[in-house]
Design a protein that fits this description.
It contains 9 helices and no strands. The chain is mostly helical. The structure holds a DNA duplex.
Length: about 240
DNA sequence: AAGGGATTCAACCGCCTTTAT
DNA sequence: TATAAAGGCGGTTGAATCCCT
């Protein structure tokens, strides 16, 4: 019947989902600064966040941690990713350990959005070239797993050849992608606040102070590149949070 | 200038493993 | 030791954004 698998106890079944607000980020950063990370479920409660422990952990690890590396993937990093993926398949966290500051999520996303399609293109190309040859039964680089990963050795060098030969190579990889890669601390896009409902502050947490005043445009830049909250803004809000 | 398809990426889910009781 | 809870992982999703006509 009413099985409530996780998140037992504690009334307050309200668990927030979706994008993190700046307020939530600040609470999390602040809490971890004071108490350290780990024990995520209790951390979430103690900090007053209406999030699951998992969600807090993910947010911290992938985004808020101070040592998350900012900026676009470099050609060197890309090469490494390609090599390691060729070796290990979709073992993202394992791969990530070899790219300091990069998260498994980021690498996974990068792979799927930036590399995979090139490889597929290259494969198609080869395919057509060697039409009379036997057709590879799709190395299936993605989609429905077919799990190269779980097969433990999975030396799926399947596409290794493709990746080295196609123009995914660093020299031709245009880097054309600019912007994005906001990362941890500077990642508070003011525009996002306009797309989301006003900060859902509960006054238990913020009895006297209110961030939103700091969220007006006075302190934001308009250029795309700098269209994020500055460190100063963050800090001042953080101090407000701390009650000075 | 506006509409719409394509792309990106933060964050979710379910499953499996590890740790705690 | 057995069971439950937490942590970790990889696949997937969809809102926001980009890009093209």
């Amino acid at each position: 019947m009413d099985k409530k698998p996780c998140n037992s106890s504690s009334q307050d079944p309200e668990v927030r989902k979706g994008p993190w607000t700046m307020e939530e980020d600040l609470i999390l950063i602040n809490y971890i600064a004071n108490h350290g990370e780990g024990v995520w479920n209790s951390l979430a409660k103690a900090a007053g966040l209406k999030r699951t422990g998992k969600s807090c952990r993910l947010r911290w690890l992938n985004y808020l941690r101070p040592d998350v590396r900012r900026g676009n993937i470099t050609p060197e990093e890309q090469l490494l990713i390609m090599e390691l993926h060729a070796k290990w398949g979709n073992r993202w966290s394992k791969i990530a350990k070899h790219l300091p500051g990069r998260t498994d999520n980021e690498i996974k996303n990068y792979w799927r959005t930036r590399i995979q399609k090139h490889i597929k293109q290259a494969e198609n190309y080869h395919h057509h070239q060697s039409n009379n040859q036997l057709h590879h039964p799709h190395h299936e680089l993605s989609t429905t797993n077919s799990d190269q990963t779980t097969s433990n050795d999975n030396t799926n060098n399947n596409y290794q050849q493709a990746s080295t030969s196609c123009h995914v190579s660093t020299t031709t990889m245009p880097d054309h992608h600019h912007h994005h890669h906001h990362h941890p601390m500077d990642a508070y896009s003011p525009t996002s606040f306009h797309h989301h409902p006003p900060p859902p502050l509960n006054n238990d947490l913020f009895p006297t102070h209110q961030f939103p005043t700091a969220l007006d445009h006075s302190s934001t830049c308009t250029s795309q590149e700098n269209n994020y909250w500055s460190m100063e803004d963050l800090w001042s809000n953080m101090q407000l949070l701390n009650g000075d």
